[in-house]
Design a protein that fits this description.
Elements: E1 2-4, E2 7-13, H1 19-28, H2 35-44, E3 46-51, E4 59-66, E5 70-78, H3 87-98, E6 104-108, H4 114-119, E7 123-133, E8 147-151, H5 157-171, H6 176-184, E9 188-194, E10 199-207, E11 212-218, H7 222-233, E12 240-245, H8 249-256, E13 261-264, E14 267-271, E15 283-285
Parallel strand pairs: 5-6, 11-12
Antiparallel strand pairs: 1-2, 2-3, 3-4, 4-5, 6-14, 7-12, 7-13, 7-14, 8-9, 9-10, 10-11, 11-15
Helix pairs in contact: 5-6, 7-8
Length: 292
């Protein structure tokens, strides 16, 4: 509980009944979340925030625990009218205390939040590249004879198991609840098969307002990553967003050739360790900046 300017602010968990309040809070800081994106965050993680004595939600932080080794924080917001009072630091401290000490904590920082994160022990270890496209320039990209791309068969349980494992190896931590939620929802999903019928890549697309989000994207190389992306976006109309980890320079050049433009390059910060979990080099796009 925090007393700011003689008003008692309570730090409380959020639920599906707070969806509209969370959407409104994101809009206060000019973030483009809609009801669908907020509900997904609530399904795969937990969100806490400060409320005024009148029940108005004026801060938030989302917590996503992946296995027993890594937690991602996102949706760190303080209402503009309540900024400068230490609420962001307090809600972060409360969330960090919820997380077992053996788990590393990662987040993607805004310029405003970076100094606060540094005071809490976070250091910069990487960055991501945010790309937007108003309308994808569609053209077919063929993969080598070693692979072929298909729509996922959601009725095969072994497909889901393999996708969860591919994502875990690429991301560096198991995200079973997230991937299962995306797999069973209305997100589109393509998979990459090798000559032996083994799944070696995947790409999700999730439609929301005001754009479609591409990711996670896992592939054995730049060629197959680009092929998955272009095939998945072939039927998508309107704006498209993708967040690409640092180091995937060739894919960034490829997507720029079909109309994507880099909008931002925020830092990835971590605490309780000095490096990201071990990855195998196949992670080409984040699920989102909040989810990692």
């Amino acid at each position: 509980m925090v007393n700011n300017n003689d008003e008692i602010l309570k730090l409380l968990p959020c639920s599906r009944t707070d969806t509209d309040s969370l959407v409104a809070l994101t809009h206060k800081v000019k973030w483009d979340f809609d009801e669908k994106r907020i509900n997904r965050l609530l399904r795969v993680g937990s969100i806490v925030g400060h409320r005024t004595s009148h029940g108005e939600l004026i801060s938030s932080t989302a917590v996503f625990r992946y296995g027993q080794t890594l937690t991602s924080l996102g949706l760190v917001i303080v209402h503009p009218d309540f900024q400068g009072r230490g609420l962001g630091k307090k809600v972060l401290e409360a969330c960090i205390q919820m997380i077992p000490e053996e788990e590393a904590i990662v987040l993607i920082a805004t310029p405003e939040g970076k100094p606060v994160y540094e005071k809490l022990g976070f250091t910069t270890v990487d960055s991501v590249h945010k790309y937007m496209c108003e309308s994808v320039q569609h053209h077919e990209v063929k993969v080598s004879n070693r692979y072929h791309i298909e729509d996922v068969n959601r009725h095969q349980s072994n497909v889901l198991h393999r996708i969860i494992q591919l994502d875990a190896d690429a991301f560096g931590a198991e995200r079973k609840l997230l991937i299962q939620n995306m797999f069973e929802s209305d997100s589109e999903c393509l998979v990459l098969f090798d000559q032996n019928g083994e799944i070696e890549g995947l790409c999700f697309a999730t439609k929301s307002e005001p754009y479609t989000v591409i990711g996670p994207l896992v592939a054995p190389n730049d060629e197959t990553a680009f092929a998955l992306l272009t095939k998945l976006t072939f039927s998508i109309e309107g704006r498209v967003r993708i967040d690409i980890p640092d180091g995937k320079t060739d894919l960034m050049k490829m997507i720029e050739s079909i109309g994507f433009h880099k909008m931002d390059n925020p830092p990835v910060m971590i605490c309780r360790t000095d490096q990201l979990p071990k990855r195998n080099g196949t992670y080409y796009a984040l699920a989102s900046q909040a989810l990692g």
